[in-house]
Design brief:
Helices cover about 35% and strands about 15% of the residues. By secondary structure, it is an alpha+beta fold.
Length: about 375
């Protein structure tokens, strides 16, 4: 009895296998039967299996679409939701081209707005003002440089050329002036021509004579004019200018003159090289006035008493003492001080006595 009915567990497994075998013709996979047999458990139904396969397929498709959309997204723009991921087919917008252009982030409006904001700020106005001020300084510097170039070189050369012509004309035209071929030769004995005559006064801004300074060398001869109050007619044209209140050559007192140190055709640039004992020669229509340098000194511009009859003194002139004073600016290209050269009239000779030996070459140069 027992052998016929068998074990209940075996009967249950046999029933399960029979059930799965009967359903095999309805499309159930054979591996489910084998799996159920090996595990000896009830297999899942066909409807459950189809449900899980469908869910897995949809999930895989959703992830695939998401990755594709992420890789095609423009780097600097927002990406619209993918209609496929939401169960809708992708259709092109009727007003847009079929191929969507790549979007580029628009920076210009923000940058323009930022620039407008900065330009209206106080710091922007300050920068603009500083820029304008800098341009004014550069322009001013260029103008100063051009002026110095004109004043120190170009104008100086022009005025010096005019002075050379003025010196030549005066020396060749004065009464009884010897020609260049009859230059004076030294005598065995010095001749005393007596006391020097007082030079006859000339009009305002008129030429007094020519001044020769051997220490300054070739090309240093300049004419002397009467007056300094109209510099455009005298010292600014390269002349030595006689102070209006100063005395005349040969007269007791102070024959005082002013001259530019640099520019304006001057030749007094190296005035600091003049030494005591040097000679300065004044050629006039009445003869040669020869001065011997006594000393030089520097004074402040306000010390105008250097042109007094007795320099730096309130004392009256001394009879028989005729002083020469030449004032010029110091340092060169500046006017912080005045360099003053002092001399005394040491001798005189008439024009017909010839040209003093020391300046023979300078006179020949001036008259040629």
């Amino acid at each position: 009895m027992t052998s016929k009915q068998g074990d209940p567990a075996e009967q249950s497994s046999e029933a399960t296998r029979k059930h799965l075998s009967d359903k095999a013709d309805n499309g159930v996979a054979k591996d489910f039967t084998e799996q159920a047999t090996s595990r000896e458990q009830k297999p899942r139904s066909v409807s459950d299996h189809d449900h899980w396969v469908k869910l897995w397929s949809q999930k895989s498709l959703s992830h695939k679409n998401a990755r594709k959309t992420s890789s095609e997204k423009a780097p600097d723009s927002e990406v619209a939701p993918d209609p496929v991921a939401h169960g809708k087919p992708h259709e092109p917008h009727p007003e847009l081209p079929a191929t969507r252009p790549k979007l580029v982030r628009a920076k210009a409006p923000r940058e323009a707005k930022a620039r407008n904001t900065v330009q209206g700020s106080p710091s922007s106005k300050l920068n603009t003002a500083l820029g304008i001020f800098g341009e004014v300084l550069i322009t001013g510097g260029a103008v100063v440089l051009l002026f110095l170039t004109w004043q120190l070189w170009i104008n100086n050369a022009i005025v010096a050329s005019e002075q050379a012509e003025a010196v030549k004309n005066f020396s060749n035209n004065i009464t009884s002036s010897p020609s260049a071929s009859s230059l004076w030769t030294p005598k065995a004995q010095a001749i005393d021509y007596g006391p020097p005559p007082v030079l006859t006064a000339v009009g305002q801004d008129d030429v007094i004579g020519n001044l020769y300074v051997p220490r300054l060398g070739s090309g240093s001869t300049r004419a002397v004019a009467n007056g300094v109050t109209n510099p455009g007619a005298t010292i600014n044209r390269g002349y030595y200018g006689k102070y209006e209140a100063a005395g005349w050559p040969g007269e007791a007192g102070n024959f005082a003159m002013a001259v530019h140190r640099t520019g304006w055709g001057t030749s007094f640039t190296q005035a600091q090289t003049i030494r005591p004992g040097d000679h300065i020669y004044l050629e006039t229509s009445q003869g040669w006035y020869i001065y011997t340098v006594r000393n030089t000194e520097y004074v402040v511009p306000s010390q105008v008493d250097v042109v007094n009859p007795i320099p730096l003194s309130q004392a009256p002139a001394v009879d028989g003492q005729s002083i020469l004073t030449i004032t010029t600016c110091s340092p060169m290209n500046g006017n912080g001080e005045r360099l003053v050269v002092y001399g005394l009239l040491s001798s005189w000779q008439p024009l017909d006595a010839g040209i003093p030996t020391e300046i023979t070459k300078l006179v020949e140069e001036a008259r040629s």
